[in-house]
Design goal:
Among the domains are: 227 residues, Zn peptidases (Aminopeptidase, 3-Layer(aba) Sandwich), CATH 3.40.630; 114 residues, Alpha-Beta Plaits (2-Layer Sandwich). The chain has 16 helices and 17 strands. A hairpin with a 3-residue loop joins strand 1 and strand 2.
């Protein structure tokens, strides 16, 4: 049975509970309405992206700005070409903006506004992309070929589409004589994919220059089609927070020896049992307020069954929590997760190693801390050691300090907030068919660094991402529709052109 089927079946059970108090629950379901912005929708003012915009975007895709975990193995030549290429493609923007380079290739661009006393808006992306080695691509990953109305290439989704859209929007608006009402800053990292410190250094530079953004808009959610819970309409999913991240090294020790005489608690077997115990016992699932808001929007756009269940969480909360926790697709929304990603044992096929190691990639829920996640793993490791009849000191759980780690991001305001409503207005103007919902992002972005200087940090990529599209991130055959890209450019035009309304709630 598919995970989605498990969820649907379980929610049917929850719906049965709702039926027991039908009258009261009908009221709850009726209150579940699709969201609408408090202010009037805003759009791109008649602007339509053309084929020339697509050709410029394709040129960016052809530059193989590939990040490497081992920075010494990175080819810097494509990164050296990046800014000169942007200057050539978008000359008016660079004539109007002030460029500061962060580290070697990070970009911090200031577009001066009419009133520099107003807190600025920061827009973010990253020009680096993940490697393509070992992947089976149908078309050249850096060829930017257009096949069946789609642009193929690494970075088309993550996140050169945002880079191209921002510069197309700025170039158009500058050409129209537009001056933003407040400063607009654009930041783009050359090392987001490897958690390089470029974003932290950009934040430090802004802080040193007394820049305090009113809001930040980075990658993250998108206008999602094929949304969960039976939603047939697209929904703009806006990240209002993101999980924390830490990697843990689990090390098991035992007497090594010849593989012909294995022991019950040799290092590898003990490690496997400990890892399974940690994997099988993540944190307790919690239906947070942000998740409730997500479910309310999705439920309002779904069947009567879902409306009944999610409109009456006062009754169905325990069942909904249990059901969502049973599916990997939805469990990550509710708890800290422990993903076993690497195992290391003997360097020979017939040798029992004295030491075996594993790596857990841990995504920390917003209601926990890294210390909570580490302590849970240590407690479970000790528990399994005792169950195996060995001293708990034989297994250690330590933070992998070689990999950057961050606490969960604070929750940015999303209820009765002018900036969040402004995003909603932009979505409603460019994607009138789409819903709008906050959510907590499972993956990490550079925007987490900006929480240090800004209370309103939102994670939203203004493009349509289908269910299939979302599976292509970091995978082979990454691609974006030509029309999808053009419409996304229009979103960024709308966002920049209407900034006079960004801090005016309901107007």
């Amino acid at each position: 049975m598919r995970a989605s089927d498990v969820v649907c079946t379980g929610l049917g059970v929850a719906a049965a509970a709702v039926c027991a108090g039908a009258a009261a629950c009908a009221v709850g379901a009726a209150k579940l309405k699709p969201s609408a912005p408090d202010g009037a929708p805003v759009d791109a003012g008649g602007y339509k992206a053309g084929d020339a915009a697509v050709e410029r975007f394709r040129e960016l895709i052809r530059i193989p700005t590939v990040s490497r975990e081992d920075v010494s193995q990175r080819d810097d030549e494509p990164f050296r070409r990046w800014v000169p290429t942007l200057r050539r493609l978008y000359p008016r923007t660079f004539e109007s903006c002030e460029l500061t380079m962060i580290d070697d290739f990070g970009i911090l661009l200031r577009w001066p506004g009419a009133d520099p006393a107003l807190d600025p808006v920061v827009m973010m992306a990253h020009q680096d992309v993940v490697p393509v080695e070992g992947q089976d691509w149908e078309h050249d990953p850096f060829g930017a070929e257009v096949v069946d109305g789609e642009i193929w290439g690494r970075g088309t989704l993550d996140t050169k589409c945002i880079v191209g859209a921002f510069f197309e929007a700025a170039e158009h608006l500058v050409g129209q004589g537009y001056v933003p009402p407040r400063d607009v800053w654009y930041f783009s990292s050359d090392g987001e994919e490897i958690a390089a410190p470029t974003a932290a250094h950009a934040v430090a530079w802004l802080r040193e220059h007394d820049v305090h953004p009113y809001m930040v808009l980075d990658e993250g959610g998108a206008v999602a089609t094929d949304a969960p819970l039976g939603v047939t309409e697209p929904v703009a999913m806006v990240g209002v927070s993101e999980k924390g991240h830490v990697d843990l090294t689990v090390t098991a020790r035992a007497g090594g020896g010849h593989a012909s005489t294995p022991a019950a608690n040799d290092a590898c077997r003990l490690l496997c049992r400990v890892c399974e115990t940690i994997s099988a016992n993540p944190g307790k699932p919690q239906l947070t307020h942000a998740v409730e808001a997500t479910l309310a929007e999705l439920g309002a756009r779904s069947s009567e069954l879902y409306q009944a269940v999610f409109g009456n969480l006062w009754l169905t909360r325990p069942a909904v929590t249990k059901i969502m926790a049973a599916s990997p697709e939805t469990a990550a929304m509710l708890r800290t997760t422990y993903a076993l990603t690497q195992l290391e044992g003997s360097n020979a096929h017939n040798v029992l190693p004295p030491v075996a190691r594993a790596n857990f990639n841990v995504r920390v829920a917003p209601f926990e801390t890294i210390d909570d996640a580490v302590e849970r793993a240590r407690r479970l490791a000790a528990q399994q050691c005792r169950a195996s009849g060995v001293d708990p000191s034989l297994v250690t759980v330590e933070v992998n300090e070689a990999i950057p780690h961050t606490e969960p991001a604070p929750i940015s305001p999303y209820e009765s907030d002018a900036a969040f409503d402004y995003l909603h207005r932009c979505v409603a103007g460019v994607y009138p068919e789409a819903g709008f919902a906050p959510y907590v992002q499972n993956s990490c972005t550079d925007s987490r660094e900006f929480n240090a200087i800004c209370d309103r940090v939102y994670r939203f990529c203004g493009f349509i991402y289908s269910g299939e599209t979302r599976t292509l991130l970091h995978a082979a055959n990454e691609r974006i529709g030509v029309d999808v890209y053009k419409r996304g450019v229009e979103f960024y035009v709308a966002f920049l052109a209407n900034l006079a309304h960004v801090d005016t709630f309901g107007a």
